[in-house]
Q: What sequence folds into this?
């Protein structure tokens, strides 16, 4: 059995095909990622892939996630990779979905009603699901939801200071996102630190090319996170504003924007690209700052300052931590960002080893802190596709002789 996993980000489209043979862990038949999808960046869109030991890159226009998914399906078909089931990352399932769901017609109706809950994620994932239903008729599909990981956050961390009757009726509460990544990272951290998850305190920073967030983890589950009711809140992101005074949103509407236009503005025209006027890519912002671009210098400082604020807040909330973990593309790639985030943090027990940080290979799991750092500092590449596969694996029939 071959299980195709689609991991749809705001500016990327990852995929993995796992071969499930019933004899231990799954084997990876195909893997890859489309980058710079439907986004503003100096770098051109690219689809990197590995299939049965062969590798390649396709440089092509990728204006939509649907088109990226089509090119991935074309690639798999060309290489004769059979698909028996498909799993999709879906960021926000609202009140309809608290666990992994088989996508029958009823579930598709409910899923469609959730599109506005994550406006630059859910519609993208929906478009990928649609193309898979068109191209792979009869192949069962499932959705796995980022929001489930944060379901046990305490009420004091999920409630907004608004009339609770309105909040209850409308579902206005902190929900949290990037749960699939945090689920994987917390399991890997338990293994690497040789400590049961229930006994660990972690601060996990999922810093992506599109969306970014921080999660405080204690007692085996998420207790707080930087994103809120929507993925727009929290850190400065590639095109999303992050935390913002609500009166600014009201001013946008008072000056003539419709609510949908204001949402588009906050989700697609702010963040790194809005502040810098240069790029939505953190690496290009860092390069611009190093080359004397003052707007990029300010943008990098704002990005780091917001990140440090959440790390410090969660260290206080958890009363210390066993580890601070950086993950996803930006968390792994940019040593200068990690150095800036951990600078002058000895008071909190955070000591980054400059040599380990600058020489990190961007591939492996690695501890980058000094020997005397009370809080270990780790870089752990995430694997959301494996988390999605594990969720599906419990629902799929046995690998031998399965029929749909």
A:
């Amino acid at each position: 059995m071959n299980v195709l996993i689609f991991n749809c980000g705001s500016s990327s489209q990852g995929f993995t095909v796992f071969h499930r043979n019933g004899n231990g862990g799954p084997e990876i038949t195909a893997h890859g990622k489309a980058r710079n999808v439907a986004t503003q960046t100096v770098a051109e869109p690219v689809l990197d892939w590995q299939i049965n030991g062969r590798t390649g890159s396709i440089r092509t226009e990728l204006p939509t996630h649907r088109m990226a998914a089509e090119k991935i399906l074309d690639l798999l078909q060309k290489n004769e990779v059979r698909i028996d089931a498909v799993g999709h990352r879906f960021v926000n399932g609202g009140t309809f979905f608290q666990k992994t769901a088989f996508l029958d017609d009823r579930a598709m109706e409910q899923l469609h009603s959730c599109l506005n809950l994550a406006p630059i994620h859910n519609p993208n994932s929906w478009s990928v699901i649609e193309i898979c239903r068109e191209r792979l008729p009869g192949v069962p599909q499932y959705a796995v939801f980022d929001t489930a990981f944060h379901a046990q956050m305490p009420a004091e961390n999920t409630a907004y200071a608004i009339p609770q009757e309105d909040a209850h009726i409308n579902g206005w509460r902190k929900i949290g996102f990037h749960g699939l990544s945090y689920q994987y990272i917390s399991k890997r951290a338990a293994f690497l630190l040789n400590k049961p998850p229930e006994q660990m305190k972690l601060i996990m920073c999922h810093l992506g090319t599109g969306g970014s967030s921080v999660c405080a983890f204690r007692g085996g589950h998420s207790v707080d996170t930087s994103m809120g009711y929507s993925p727009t809140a929290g850190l400065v992101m590639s095109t999303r504003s992050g935390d913002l005074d609500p009166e600014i949103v009201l001013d946008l509407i008072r000056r003539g924007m419709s609510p949908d236009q204001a949402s588009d503005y906050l989700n697609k025209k702010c963040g790194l690209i809005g502040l810098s006027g240069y790029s939505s890519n953190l690496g290009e912002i860092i390069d611009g700052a190093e080359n004397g671009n003052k707007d990029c210098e300010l943008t990098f400082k704002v990005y780091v300052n917001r990140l440090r604020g959440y790390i410090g807040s969660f260290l206080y909330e958890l009363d210390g931590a066993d580890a601070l973990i950086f993950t996803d593309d930006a968390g792994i790639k940019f040593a200068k960002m990690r150095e800036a985030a951990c600078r002058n943090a000895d008071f909190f027990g955070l000591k980054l080893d400059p040599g380990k940080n600058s020489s990190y290979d961007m591939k492996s799991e690695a501890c980058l802190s000094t020997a005397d750092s009370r809080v270990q500092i780790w870089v752990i590449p995430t694997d959301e596709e494996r988390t999605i596969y594990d969720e599906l694996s419990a629902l799929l029939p046995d690998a031998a002789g399965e029929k749909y």
Notes: The chain has two domains: 2-152+387-393, 194-379.
